[in-house]
Amino acid sequence: MSSQQRILPYTSVFIKLLKGPVEYVEKSTWEKLIQYKVELTSFLLQMGLSLVLDEQDGYAYIKHYPFEEDENPVSWIQRRSLTYEESVMLVLLREMMAEFEVGEATNRELIKKRREIKEYAELFFKENASRVKFLKEIDRLIDKAEENGFIDKTETSDLADEQKFRIKKIIKAKVSSEDLDHFYQQLVRYKEEKETNQPVQQEQQ
Fold first, then answer.
1. Which string of b and e fits 24-55 if b means at least 16 CB within 10 Å?
2. Measured between alpha carbons, how far is residue 155 from residues 152, 160, 163, 166 in Å?
3. Which residue segments constitute the domains of the chain, with CATH numbers given?
4. 172 burial class (0-12, 13-18, 19+ CB within 10 angstroms)?
5. pLDDT less than 70: residues of the chain
6. How many C-beta atoms surround the C-beta of residue 22 within 10 A?
7. Which of 53, 110, 118, 205 has the fewest Cβ atoms nearer than 10 Å?
């Protein structure tokens, strides 16, 4: 193969990045990404893309550079739209990550059982008339978070609630500290409105 036909050494990394974020747990890909990060950044720039790399937390992804209004570029990156409930679950997972990083000094990864995620989420989602349907909806949101690449199942179990998930650090790039603050401001207002609208029970004579 001539030098003009030579495949770039970081081509495999580029292909993986097009499919989604790359993490340090993908050891061979991650090592190649770090090795060729300068060349890869320059290569992506030519296509209107930028590399977002967080070596400390161990994740990387690509995003589009902003284009002028009169330009209509081809989208290289797969985009996912989230429903309101899916967005709330994402914020809750991000909050679990924030609490973990403040209090945990030994483990690098945040591992939670499905049961633990559900118990945490129950505090924030409004329960409907049927508790069975309510819990099934939270299960669906957890499964959707896995499908969208924000959590990974690390251990299966005969009991679904005992399944273990790794909450990925890439979630920090999707939900910022400002997003968390905004969420809590909304949550406080919601609780205040709920308490204000709650009917007052009269004492029995």
1. beeeebbebbeebbeebeebbeeeebebebee
2. 9, 10, 6, 9
3. 8-64 (1.10.10), 84-184 (1.10.10)
4. middle
5. 1-5, 66-80, 104-105, 128-129, 184, 187-188, 190-205
6. 21
7. 205
